[in-house]
Automatic annotation (TrEMBL):
<protein>
    <submittedName>
        <fullName>Amino acid adenylation domain-containing protein</fullName>
    </submittedName>
</protein>
Length: 426
């Protein structure tokens, strides 16, 4: 459940590893520091926005003007002038931080309105806010389930879901990615009248696929009486009417018990939210440690998210722009001969059979003014890899054209270097 094979990211998984694995990881990280090898993802934005800016490596002041494809600001609302105006109004009227958790006195009207309007848009009676998407998943899973229960997770689900399951001590089982019949086999062996079962999946996974077969999975879960949580982090805001998400798009809102999303992607702010029945929300709010023992979202971030929520609900043109750029990018890259897999969503991932040249391509593209990332094992099959471009409504077709040219040039350069190295070896 780590999102990159880079050692820095592998560190996130150490708690699940044996002591020997951990020691190996520590060695690898120390070696990396010694070699002054840079983490290709750790760029700092010096000025600019989600899609274009002056960036640099974290420990190096040398700046590069770059088109940025590595953030999940799908609708570009982080730079919207109304969003910024409302955020600064809230900043001036409430100050910077809330100073306590939502369960104590860390709520304003903005927080309350956000919960109400998110619940309304997703078709649920109530909703519960968390300071991040990560803690929303942790809080929802661990707030609802206990050690006698079972959590059944799609094998590609996000780390926060796994961590919520670990925190509550429930039995954790996985089912094969997007596979309803494999889920049935797990349900048959795990569901019992003496404990609760929760099936957890994502509406869209972040590696360039399209919408997951959520309706099939949910139908299967319900056949065995399991609760269902759908994480809409990569679908809320641009699937379904008014951007309500995949559950709305597939007409299964009622059957899904918990609809979760983050405020940090399409809504361009920070926070997490879970919509559910009033009883379930009350249970989460009174039992979830992530809800009770953590400070709430700041007023400015809350105003930004609320304004974004209202805007995305009303503005079909914004969504259309994202989809238009997505389709254009997919077509241009496919016409240039890149294999993009079977997906159709805004995360575009050209596949490469040779993983070794991917990081070099990322560096070469960066030099040419394009910031992207590489994904290798264990996210994808061993030996293979993908580049990842996350489209936003703020990207233009000219950005796509520039990026494709940079990719073609970078790949040519890397191939040339590799063949020169081979000649030297001979
Ligand atoms: N769920 C999924 C599927 C995600 O991709 C992410 C973020 N990468 C999260 C939850 C956590 O959201 P946040 O970063 O806003 O905490």
């Amino acid at each position: 459940h780590i999102r990159s094979s880079h050692p820095t990211f592998q560190a996130a998984k150490v708690s699940a590893w044996s002591a020997t694995d951990k020691a190996k990881l520590v060695q690898e990280v120390l070696q990396m520091v010694n070699d002054q090898r840079r983490n290709p993802y750790s760029k700092v934005l010096r000025t600019g926005s989600a899609t274009r800016g002056l960036v640099s490596d974290a420990y190096n002041d040398e700046q590069q003007d770059a088109i940025i494809w590595t953030t999940n600001l799908y609708l570009g609302l982080n730079r919207d002038k109304d969003v910024i105006a409302e955020a600064s109004k809230a900043l001036h009227s409430f100050g910077t931080g809330m100073g306590t958790s939502a369960a104590a006195s860390g709520m304003t009207d903005l927080h309350l309105e956000f919960e109400k309007e998110f619940a309304d848009l997703t078709g649920k009676p109530s909703a519960c806010l968390f300071p991040t998407g990560y803690t929303a998943n942790v809080g929802a899973v661990a707030g609802i389930l206990g050690r006698n229960d079972v959590v059944i997770i799609d094998q590609l689900c996000h780390a926060s879901i796994v961590d919520g399951a670990r925190l509550c001590g429930a039995t954790i089982r996985t089912f094969q990615h997007n596979n309803a019949s494999d889920l049935e086999a797990v349900l048959q062996s795990e569901v019992s009248p003496y404990r609760s079962a929760m099936v957890v999946l994502e509406g869209v996974y972040s590696m360039g696929e399209g919408a997951a077969p959520v309706a099939d999975i949910v139908k299967m879960a319900k056949k065995y009486g399991a609760l269902v949580l759908v994480d809409e982090a990569h679908s809320f805001g641009f699937y379904g009417e008014g951007g309500a998400g995949i559950c709305a798009a597939q007409g299964i809102t009622e059957e899904v018990d918990f609809i979760m999303t983050t405020l940090s992607k399409a809504m361009g702010s920070i926070g997490g939210v879970v919509a559910a029945s009033q009883e379930h929300v009350d249970l989460i709010k009174s039992s979830s440690r992530a809800y009770i023992f953590q400070a709430s979202v700041s007023p400015a971030d809350m105003a930004a998210a609320l304004t974004s929520l209202r805007r995305l609900r009303a503005d079909d043109a914004l969504r259309a722009r994202l989809w238009d750029t997505t389709r254009y990018m997919r077509k241009q890259f496919a016409d240039a001969g890149y294999d993009l897999g079977t997906g159709d969503g805004p995360i575009v991932t050209p596949h490469f059979s040779d993983k070794d040249k991917l990081y070099a391509i990322v560096q070469e593209m960066y030099k040419r003014g394009v910031q992207t990332s590489a994904v290798t094992y264990p996210i994808v099959e061993s030996g293979r890899g993908r580049l990842r471009f996350i489209c936003s409504a703020a990207h233009t077709k000219a950005d796509v054209d520039f990026t494709l040219q940079a990719l073609l040039d970078a790949e040519r350069e890397v191939d040339l270097q590799l063949s020169k190295n081979k000649e030297l070896e001979l």
